[in-house]
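Schema walkthrough. Field components (list of strings):
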Amino acid sequence: MSYVNFLDGKFFFTDAEDKKIFLADIKTSAENKSRLHSHQFSSRGGGIDFPLTETVMKFLNNFSAQNIESLTSVIIFLKITSELLRKEKIFKVLSFGEWTKLNSALAKFLPEFNEENFFYSFSKTRPIENFPNAKFFFAEDDEIFLPESKFDAVILDRPLLKFEILLTAKVFGKIFFSATKMPFPEIFQKNLQIFELVENVALFELTVTPELKKFLRSQTFEGQIAQKKFFIQATVKKLPAIFEKISSGAEKNLLLDNFIAEISVAEKVLSEIFKYLYSDSAKQNFNLLKEVLIDYRLNFCDAEKIFTQYKILLEDFKQDFFAGEF
Amino acid sequence: MNLTSRKSFSILPSGGWKNQLLLKDCGIIPFLFCKNHGFESSVLVGSKVEGEKYPYLEKIPGVELDFLPENSFQARLNWINSNAENFDLMILYGAYVQYSPLVELYKKIRPDGKVYLATDMNIAWADRIEHNSEAFQFLLKNCDVIAASCRKTQKYLSAKWNVPVELFRNGFYNFANANFENLFEGKEDIILTVARIGTFQKRNDIMLEAFAEIAEDFPTWKMRLVGSIEKIFQPYIEKYFERFPNLKGRVIFTGLIENKSDLMKEYKRAKIFCLSSNFEGAPNVAAEALYFGNFIITSEIDSAPDITDNQNCGRIFPIDDSKSLAKIFREVCGNEKILLEGGKFAFDYGRRDFDMEKIVARLNYLLFGGR
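Field assembly_structure (string):
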C-alpha cells in the first residue's frame, strides 16, 4: 500500500514497492531555499515551529488518505506547497473537473503566501463556501480558449486533455493528472514523475520543460500552421542566395530546377493553410513567383521580373508571416 | 532535345471530339508535347461523332484519335483499364467531377503517371461546382497540375480551391504558316469578330447595334462577322438590314471559314477585333487577334483584362451595353494613333504571353521538370 509520511519536517511518498519520492520540506528555509522562515525564535531564544507547519497539517488533516482520491490530493497539495515555498513569484493554479476538497484547500491556502495568488476552476460545480482568491468558469473543453503560459500548476481530472490546455502551464510549471498507467510519447516520459498509487493506477506530474513546450506548441493547430508558415518563409528567403550563386557562375539550370522544386512543395503547403491567412492574395502571388522562376529557367524572361514579384510577395507576406522577419 | 518517348491521352467525360477542337488547346497541347518535348504519341479518346470528319488531324502529327465502342462511362473506365499502363500523362479538359473515378483508376494503374486538368472555365461555372465535395476534392488532390485560362479566373480559383492553380492561357500556334511581315501596312478599317454568330452567348446583336450607331460618322469602316450563323439569328439579321439598308455591304457575314489560311487573312486585314459575349472562359480567337496586331474591344468577360492586357491593347465595355460599345468605337475608329499603338502592343504581347509553344514548355516543365 502506498502512503505519505512526515519525517523531520519533510513529506515523502512511499509506493507499494517501498520506493520513496520527496514531496515537500516545510521545516528549514536553508534546505528548501524558501523565502519564508520555517522557524521563529521566541524572545527567550528557544525555537518554536513556524505556523506554516501547523497550517499545512491542518489542511492535510482534511484529507483522509484512505483512498486513491485523497492520496492523490495529498500529493498534489504537498507538491504545490513545495513550489510555494521555493518560489517568490505569484502563483496561479488552474483546475479542471468537479470541485473537490483539494480545490477548497488550495483556494484557501494560496493567498496565505501572497494575496495575488489565485485559484481558477473550470467546473460544473461550485463550492458553497466563499473563496476570495478563487475564480470560477464553466465551458465545454472544446470551447475553452485559455491564455498560454499563465499557470504554475494545472490539475486535470482526466489524462492529458488537448495540447492547448497543457500549454496553459508556464515553462517549468506542473501538470497533474491521475490515470491508468499507459505508454506516453518519449518527450512526455522523460518529464514525468510517476507516483504509483495502486496497481496500474498512478498520479502523474508532468514538468513543462522548454523542450516540451515547443513540442506542445507544434502539436496544436496553431502550432502546425506556424510550422508550415516557417517552412514557406524559409523556402522563399533562399531566393536571393540562389541568385547570388547564379551571378557568381554556379550552374544556373541545376540551381533553379532544385529551387523551383522546393518552391513547388512550399506552394502545396501554402495551399493547405491559405484559408487561415489574413492575405487572400498570398497564394496567388506565390504562384506568380513560381511562374516567373519557370519563365526565367526557360529563358522566357529576365531576372528582374523575378525580383519584382519577390518584392510583391514579401510585401504580401508581411501581414501573415513573422513580423520583422522580412 | 531530350527524347523521352512519353505518351499522353485525353479523355472526354462524355461525347466525342469534333474536328474544330483539334486546332484548339485540346489538340495543340498534345501535338506540341510530341513536336517539342519528345512525346511519342498523344491519343484523344472519345466516342464517335456521327458524320464528323477530321481534316485538322493531319496538322497535328503525333496526335491520334481512338474511338470508344459506345458513349458510356463504363466504356471510358474500360479504356483506361486496358490502356493506361502505357500512358505517362492524362490530360483533362473542364473541371468535371465525373473525372474523379477515371483519375482514380488511372492513378491506381500508373501511380507515377501525371494528370493535367485544364479547367478553361469561367467564374460562373466555378461557382456552380461543389468544390468541397469528397469527389471533387479527390479530383483536385490527384491532379498534378491544375490550370485556369485567364488571370482573373486563376485568382478566383486560387482563393477558393485548396490546391495550386496555374495559369495557362489559350494561346496561338501558327498552323497556317501565316506571314506577319508588313502587318500594319496592309490593315483596313475593319471590325472583325470570329465566332458561332448569333448564339445567346456571343451576343453579336450588341456589336451590330453599336456599329449601326456610329457607321454614318465613320463611312470607311466595315464590320465582318466570321463564323456559321445560328438559324435563330437569321430573322434578326433580316430586320437589321431592313432598319439599316445602308449597311448592306458594310456589315458582312462571311459564314464559316474552315481554311485556316483564309481565316488568318481576316485577322490580318482587320484593325479591330470585337467580342460582345455575355460570358466566356478565355476565347481562342483572342490569341489569334493579338498575334495579328488587332486592337481588342471586348465585353467584360472574365478574361477581358488578360486579352487586352488591362486595356493596353484594347478596351473593355460592360456586358449587354451597345451604347458603351458604340462610344468606344467612336473613340478609336477615328484615332489611328490609338489603333496603331494598341495593335503593335497586341502584336508583342501576343508573342510574349500567348505563344502556345512557350505555354506547353511551361506545362512540360511543371509536369516533368522540363525533362
